């Protein structure tokens, strides 16, 4: 922990969202009651040992795999919703750190394919974009916060590769088929590489021309029906990206 983090912990102590104990947003005791998610195929949602897309489910412009760490319920759901509502970056950073610890230490080696993809020198981390109006109103993009923390942990670049170009309804209020239509053609690739200007709000990342990307880990906070991530993946692959794995902190239990 660096000096800045120590000072922040003193000025703004963190309390467990489950029991109120000081020290972190999910204390070791409450972590025992958090349910890890089974890895699933991002197309059919049936179990996949490594999270890789089943051979029979593969599509030309489809996701190559999905890693979600927890079931979206209980304290995990509360933590993510608290972060979104209150702008608490530290909750998302803590969850990302905890999730990667699970990935790196899992004795079953179920994350080996994902770790191999992450460690490739041709892999960069990106995220699902928000409309600028909504992001400005909220003050941050939660998917970008997670992506930036993941990139920091693995020593990779976090890049903004897509932009959202039209308004969509809140996905949570829609049924599965409506969600697919809702996000159709709402993303476009970023054409030119641009660095964030000094003083830009937290978090920061570079914007990168999509044609320069080969492998991408696409990050969102929750993988629900997968409609948004699949649409992002379609745009990425139609514009030259070869492989895309999705990463989220959680997905709803089936």
TrEMBL record:
<dbReference type="InterPro" id="IPR000836">
    <property type="entry name" value="PRTase_dom"/>
</dbReference>
<comment type="similarity">
    <text>Belongs to the ComF/GntX family.</text>
</comment>
<feature type="domain" description="Phosphoribosyltransferase">
    <location>
        <begin position="145"/>
        <end position="244"/>
    </location>
</feature>
<dbReference type="InterPro" id="IPR029057">
    <property type="entry name" value="PRTase-like"/>
</dbReference>
<protein>
    <recommendedName>
        <fullName>Phosphoribosyltransferase domain-containing protein</fullName>
    </recommendedName>
</protein>
<dbReference type="InterPro" id="IPR051910">
    <property type="entry name" value="ComF/GntX_DNA_util-trans"/>
</dbReference>
<dbReference type="Pfam" id="PF00156">
    <property type="entry name" value="Pribosyltran"/>
</dbReference>
